[in-house]
Write a structure and sequence with these properties.
Number of helices: 20
CATH architecture of one domain: 2-Layer Sandwich
Oligomer: single chain
Structural class: alpha/beta
CATH class of one domain: Alpha Beta
Number of strands: 20
Radius of gyration: 25 Å
Distance between the termini: 36 Å
Length: 547
């Protein structure tokens, strides 16, 4: 009996000691930082790090991955991978089914038109005479971690974001930020919206006077290293690589010539020089906005690009992609070095992640590896569906709109029909599309509205569906397949794995192999910043980082 009591007390003491030790470790190793520096890279595959490792310098990606906590099994599980939905999910800790950003654009039934997710004509562009700044986060229906930081500190925390693309800048900043800046392809300037900035800062005006886009666009894009040393990628003249405009796929790239063809600065966004501009803008902002000058944690997010809209024209195995990341490695090194110099390594919490991943081109997978993949011809499928509906229910415009692997039916027309109900037509059209070879699964909206915690192939659809913004049915393609359009380009990927690394602020170097989701970023950062985890957050704290 006495031995049993002793054993019980021994066990209780052991548990208590372990708990106290863990809490002490958390308190000592997770003090709130002066500054959070988020580094987000668009279209970044996690395996780029391993692939280019031997060519990276010592103080960029290598420093982050060797001295940081690397979460090696993280997924961003969305129906339609895109900058807007990805960034909104990362910074809210919930999926589009809650935050509402189902894609970069969606069909608005009231306006009878497709709308862009950040468009808001109530606000105007600050920094240029264009409409690229007529934007706000009003369509984001959840608070971001930066909003929560602002609320908890009574507005004292400074929050900023910098990006090439508007969606990334707006949703990283949230509703309460002091500033969100992005690149305007019409003017070639860094701009903002009057939602964030009432008076354009002099330091930004001075930065724009340096004409980064114009100056660097006149500099031919050449490789950082001799081409013969790029052994981790395909040859520059690889025959299946489409290249700019389906023509220019070898170095050097005369970006100015491409700009003359597009009549705007979109080609500049695809080059390493654009990431250089973003890095320089961020460093200028840290000084001008007096980031990290007090004891309240400030939050800055910098979003880099992986060749932007030309990502799919070259692909993950291209020399252009590798060269982009070798340049980016230099810029991240400069960013980390300068930030640590300003605030001290232990006073800054860095995190590196991506808002989308990237897929290999269909032609590459088919020709080189004999995979059973192809393009799903969206327009042909819709044309066949239209003919079927007209034959079955009469000559009417039953389909209002289609995009992003979903379709919108004409609800008003169907309500007047005595031949079919809305849910019946949802079933019919969904089943019709489900029969095509490249389609993995299709689900009608009324089934999605019933709610489910489905995993596997249905999980991305349930995570993304939002009533009145999503279509009447949504479908996914088989692995490796991509949507094809005759006159429309899409930046599509079916890859869901993204990088996630925490670095600085007493973070212990380790590799975390457990499965995690992009929604885990917000609760984990919240714990590190000593702020409450959002009530609706769908993610979980990455315990390995804290205990």
């Amino acid at each position: 009996m006495k031995a049993g009591v002793v054993l019980v007390f021994a066990l209780l003491f052991s548990v208590l000691a372990t708990s106290v030790s863990a809490q002490k470790k958390a308190d000592q190793g997770n003090t709130a930082p002066k500054v959070v520096m988020g580094i987000v890279v668009e279209n970044m595959r996690p395996d780029y790090i391993q692939r280019y490792w031997n060519k990276f310098g010592s103080n960029g990606f290598k420093k982050i991955y060797t001295e940081g906590a690397v979460c090696s099994n993280v997924k961003l599980t969305l129906h339609n991978q895109n900058y807007a939905s990805g960034t909104a999910t990362l910074f809210t800790g919930v999926h589009p089914s809650i935050h509402g950003i189902v894609a970069n654009t969606w069909y608005d039934r009231l306006r009878k038109n497709e709308i862009e997710c950040t468009e808001d004509d109530y606000y105007i562009t600050v920094g240029a005479d264009t409409k690229a700044g007529n934007a706000s986060p009003k369509n984001l229906l959840s608070t971001t971690i930066t909003d929560n930081l602002k609320i908890l500190t009574l507005g004292k925390a400074k929050v900023f974001s910098v990006a090439l693309n508007r969606e990334s800048a707006v949703f990283a900043a949230g509703h309460s930020a002091d500033g969100a800046y992005w690149f305007d392809t019409k003017s070639g300037r860094m701009i903002s919206s009057s939602f964030y900035v009432s008076t354009f800062p002099d330091w930004v005006r001075l930065f724009n006077s340096e004409n980064y886009a114009d100056v660097y666009s006149h500099r031919t894009w050449t490789t950082l290293l001799p081409e013969m040393t790029y052994e981790e990628c395909l040859r520059d003249d690889y025959i299946l690589e489409r290249g700019y405009f389906g023509e220019y796929n070898i170095f050097p790239h005369a970006i100015n010539k491409y700009i003359k063809r597009t009549e705007d600065f979109r080609p500049f966004k695809t080059t390493p020089s654009a990431n250089l501009m973003v890095k320089d803008f961020t460093l200028r902002m840290l000084d001008a906005e007096e980031i990290g000058k007090d004891n309240v944690t400030d939050f800055v997010t910098t979003v880099f690009s992986s060749m932007d809209y030309e990502n799919g024209s070259f692909g993950p195995a291209s020399l252009e992609m590798m060269d982009s990341y070798l340049y980016l490695d230099k810029y991240i090194e400069e960013l980390i070095t300068e930030v640590e110099k300003r605030y001290g390594k232990d006073n800054v919490l860095f995190f590196l992640t991506a808002n989308t991943s990237a897929s290999y081109p269909v032609e590459y997978l088919k020709e080189e590896f004999n995979l059973s993949v192809d393009y799903f011809n969206v327009e042909s499928a819709i044309a066949l569906l239209t003919s079927f509906l007209n034959i079955t229910y009469g000559e009417q415009k039953w389909i209002e709109h289609y995009s992003d692997l979903q379709l919108y039916l004409d609800h008003e027309l169907i309500s007047k029909s005595d031949k079919v109900t809305l849910n019946e037509l949802r079933d019919v059209t969904s089943n019709f599309i489900n029969q095509f070879e490249g389609v993995q699964v299709s689900m009608p909206a009324y089934q999605l509205e019933q709610g489910s915690s489905a995993n596997g192939m249905l999980e991305p659809i349930y995570n993304t569906y939002y009533k009145n913004r999503s279509g009447d049915f949504m479908y996914t393609l088989k692995e490796g397949w991509q949507p094809g359009y005759k006159f429309k380009r899409v930046n599509y990927t079916d890859q869901s794995r993204i990088p996630l690394v925490f670095f600085g602020n007493h973070i212990k170097a380790q590799t975390i192999y457990n499965k995690h989701n992009a929604t885990d970023l917000v609760p984990t950062l919240s714990e590190m910043l000593r702020i409450p985890v959002p009530d609706k957050c769908q993610g979980k704290i990455i315990d390995e980082l804290l205990y």
